[in-house]
């Protein structure tokens, strides 16, 4: 008998297509790898079953193992990625990196981006330059939207924003498109891509390449480069890299000091600490009406290097750190150590956040370490640390912008930056809590409800919930003995933020204080449905049963 062959991804530097009926030794070795992954991954992760149950994980591994004999190698690898993606939110560091050169996958020389008005071809090799700026209609056998959803299923992320950022890139990976059913045939074969450009639709057969290293890119953003991209990488797939880790520029007319911080890491010629010393020294010598820290493209680094940023802003609290002066630009690429920075700025400064929600979760798993499968040598990244910068009860999926400012496709074509423009145009508005307080005086809960709905409908508040503002207002009203108004505000909060444990918990306590016992119990149960076994809610139910007063706090 011929000796069974098994291709090592790292040692041999390629992935061979598996036979339709995989050879017995290859099947055995892949199954050994899956068994190793199933035993080692839970052992090495600080809380592996934080979302996926043990039984669900075992079932997913078992299903993949059962499919090995008929599967291609790349289908097994993408199957592993699907399992790590299922580990749950706040765990985007645990993943199989399907863009890793170690896998030797094929990539379409097209770079896609999801704008507010759809998915577009943002960059392409010179061969396909005529589709740059086109809207994606379909890829392979699926519509753009269906393909994106299919790819999301194998994409790890702390939340939907970081999942989106990765899925944009994975739409170009030939093996991924085949594994999720978007395209047929061998990964080395062309993929039909349907686009809409200049008012017409066309289909282009795009050939994947084994390496993007030699690709000369044509990028829609190059014709009229936006200010923030001054030192950006010319490789559209180079995530979280730039020609400069950090730089700043002063705009005299709006008296705006713009600081671009794209990597939480020292540069070869300058440390993060030295750079920010320079920034704050410059600010001390100039009139600064608006101080902008742009971390939209910052995917992390060493979060201990964030301290000079925070300490400097705290020292300048009365100048740069004032509300309406300090702005932090965030987005889907704000992740890992950059998320840690956003966290401390959210906690300790008066920053106004502008842009998209962060790609990282406030509390999250991080510091991934590599687990290499013994036979295939496939690398699997697993989180090793739980980072809890915020209150342990903080279940937010992201830090949401106070002012939503998303890019449309025309912004990259024209070199405009809606986020920076929103900051330049910013004028203080009446806070939601003050609007609701006034509405209660003028028309009670009914008018307050109208005010909350109008506030949430403002485009700038696309991602804002108002949950904290309404919670704080309800507590203030209780302190002022305006019980009915407080209950009304808590009712509004629970109605518009139905997925908030705190909103239902506070409403339950308000009902209990108002002696609406049945209503209080119902709200406590809703709170427990969101945050199971929450000690505060269980204690509140005990107090309710004992006849003791519950007061929101």
Structural class: alpha/beta
- Please tell me what the overall shape is: globular
User: Strand share of the residues?
Assistant: 5-15%
Low-confidence stretches: 1-20
CATH topology of the domain at 231-361 and 396-424: 2-enoyl-CoA Hydratase, Chain A, domain 1
- Give me the CATH architecture of the domain at 231-361 and 396-424, please: Alpha-Beta Complex
Tell me the Rg in angstroms.
26 Å
Task: Describe the largest sheet.
Answer: 6 strands, mixed
Helices, by number, come to 17
The CATH superfamily of the domain at 231-361 and 396-424 bears the name: 2-enoyl-CoA Hydratase, Chain A, domain 1
Helix content: 25-40%
Alpha-carbon distance between the termini? Answer: 75 Å
Number of strands: 17
CATH class wording of the domain at 231-361 and 396-424? Alpha Beta
Mean pLDDT: 93
Across the major sheet, the strand order is 8-9-10-11-12-17
Write the layout of secondary structure elements.
Blueprint: H1 24-44, H2 54-67, H3 73-85, E1 110-115, E2 118-125, E3 135-139, E4 142-143, H4 144-152, H5 160-170, H6 174-179, E5 191-197, E6 200-206, E7 217-219, E8 246-251, E9 256-261, H7 272-284, E10 290-294, H8 307-315, E11 326-330, H9 337-348, E12 352-355, E13 363-366, E14 369-372, E15 379-382, E16 385-388, E17 403-404, H10 409-414, H11 418-424, H12 432-457, H13 467-479, H14 483-496, H15 501-513, H16 517-530, H17 535-546
Parallel strand pairs: 9-10, 10-11, 11-12, 12-17
Antiparallel strand pairs: 1-2, 2-7, 3-4, 3-5, 5-6, 8-9, 13-16, 14-15
Helix pairs in contact: 1-2, 2-3, 7-8, 8-9, 12-13, 12-14, 13-14, 14-15, 15-16, 16-17
């Amino acid at each position: 008998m011929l000796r069974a062959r098994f291709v090592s991804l790292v040692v041999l530097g390629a992935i061979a297509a598996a036979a339709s009926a995989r050879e017995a030794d290859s099947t055995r070795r892949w199954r050994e790898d899956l068994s190793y992954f199933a035993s080692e991954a839970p052992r090495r992760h600080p809380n592996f079953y934080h979302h996926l149950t043990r039984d669900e994980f075992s079932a997913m591994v078992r299903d993949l193992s059962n499919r090995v004999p008929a599967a291609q190698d790349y289908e097994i690898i993408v199957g592993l990625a699907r399992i790590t993606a299922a580990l749950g939110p706040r765990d985007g560091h645990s993943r199989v990196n399907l863009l890793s050169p170690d896998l030797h996958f094929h990539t379409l020389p097209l770079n896609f981006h999801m704008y507010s008005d759809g998915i577009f071809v943002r960059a392409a090799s010179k061969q396909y330059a005529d589709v740059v700026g086109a809207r994606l209609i379909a890829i392979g056998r699926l519509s753009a939207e269906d393909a994106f959803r299919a790819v999301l299923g194998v994409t790890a992320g702390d939340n939907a924003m970081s999942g989106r950022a990765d899925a944009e890139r994975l739409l170009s990976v030939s093996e991924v498109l085949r594994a999720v059913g978007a395209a047929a045939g061998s990964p080395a074969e062309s993929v039909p891509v349907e686009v809409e450009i200049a008012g017409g639709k066309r289909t282009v057969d795009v050939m994947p390449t084994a390496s993007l290293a030699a690709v000369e890119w044509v990028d829609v953003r190059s014709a009229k480069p936006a200010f923030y991209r001054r030192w950006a990488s010319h490789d559209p797939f180079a995530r979280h890299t730039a020609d400069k880790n950090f730089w700043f520029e002063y705009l005299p007319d709006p008296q705006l000091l713009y600081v671009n911080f794209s990597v939480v890491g020292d540069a070869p010629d300058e440390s993060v600490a030295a750079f920010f010393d320079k920034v704050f020294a410059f600010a001390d010598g100039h009139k600064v009406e608006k101080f902008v820290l742009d971390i939209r493209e910052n995917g992390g680094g060493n979060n201990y290097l964030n301290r000079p940023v925070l300490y400097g802003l705290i020292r300048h609290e009365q100048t740069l750190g004032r509300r309406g002066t300090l702005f932090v630009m965030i987005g889907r690429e704000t992740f890992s150590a950059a998320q840690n920075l956003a966290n401390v700025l959210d906690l300790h400064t008066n920053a106004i956040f502008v842009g998209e929600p962060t790609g990282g979760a406030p509390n999250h798993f991080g510091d991934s370490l590599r687990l290499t499968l013994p036979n295939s040598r496939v690398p699997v990244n697993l989180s090793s640390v739980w980072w809890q910068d915020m209150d342990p009860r903080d279940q937010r999926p992201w830090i949401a912008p106070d002012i939503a400012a998303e890019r449309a496709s025309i912004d990259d074509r024209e070199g405009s930056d809606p986020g920076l423009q929103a900051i330049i145009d910013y004028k203080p508005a009446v806070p939601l809590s003050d609007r609701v307080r006034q509405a209660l005086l003028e028309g009670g809960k009914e008018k307050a409800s109208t005010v909350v709905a109008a506030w949430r409908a403002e485009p700038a508040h696309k991602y804002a919930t108002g949950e904290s503002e309404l919670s704080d207002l309800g507590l203030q009203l209780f302190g002022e003995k305006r019980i009915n108004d407080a209950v009304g505000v808590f009712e509004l909060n629970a109605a518009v933020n139905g997925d908030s444990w705190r909103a239902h918990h506070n409403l339950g306590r308000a009902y209990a204080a108002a002696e609406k016992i049945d209503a209080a119990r119902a709200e406590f149960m809703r709170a427990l449905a969101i945050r199971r076994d929450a000690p505060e809610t269980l204690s509140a139910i005990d107090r309710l049963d004992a006849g003791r007063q519950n007061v929101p706090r």
